[in-house]
Amino acid sequence: MMVSVALILSGIYFTYLRYLDLKDSALEKIQISIEQMTCSMDENFSQLQDISFALLATPTLRQWNLGEMSFDPSDKYYYLTIQELQDSISSTLMFSRAWTAGYINAIYMFADGQTIRLVNRLSLPVTPTDKQFQEVYSSTIDNSSNSFYVQNTLGNSTNVFYVCRMHDTDYSKQLTLILQLNSDAICQQLTSSDYSLTTSLVYDDTIYFSSDSALIGKDFSPPGSSDKTFHQSLMLSSNEFSVHAWIAEDSIYAPLWSSLIPYVLAFLISLLFFGGLAGFVSVSYTRFLNALTQNLEHLRQSDFDTLMPDFKEPELHEISNTFNLMVKENNQLFNCIYKQEILFHVIPSDYLQVGDRNPCRY
Question: Looking at the whole model, is its pTM more than 0.85?
Answer without folding.
Answer: no
